[in-house]
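#onboarding

Welcome to the new folks! Below is a worked example of what a typical request in this channel looks like: someone posts a single protein sequence, and someone else replies with the predicted structure as tokens. Don't worry about understanding the tokens yet, we'll cover that in week two.

Example request:
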Amino acid sequence: MSALVQHRQSLLHHRLDPADSAVRADPWWLLTRTHAYAAAAGVAVDVVLDPRSYQRRTGRTVGAWCAGNAYTGPAGARWPVPLIYLSPRLLPTRGDAETVIAHEVMHARWPSYGHKKIAFARAQQLLDTVAGIA
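Example response:
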């Protein structure tokens, strides 16, 4: 991830209260929270928490450093349901996971935005929208 992308990612702020933010992000929570973000974005997604499963389905490897990744299919042949990978190992708490989920759902909903400034504005809008969903 480039320095600019890291900076833009660091500017994203979740709206979880401190107690909820510190709770362990178990697999069920990661899956349901990602689907809540996808619903807020108006897109259906599939979610995997295992890098081997992601690689098997996409043909792409995710590095051990990768907390999340969205795959929308090859250019010109987009998948009807994008695939989002999340690493439970790198997202141990709900606070750690929240901005990564918003970032990846943003890619699933608006793949052409890449890592432009507008992409992170959309991710923040998702964070603000989903704030009230338990």
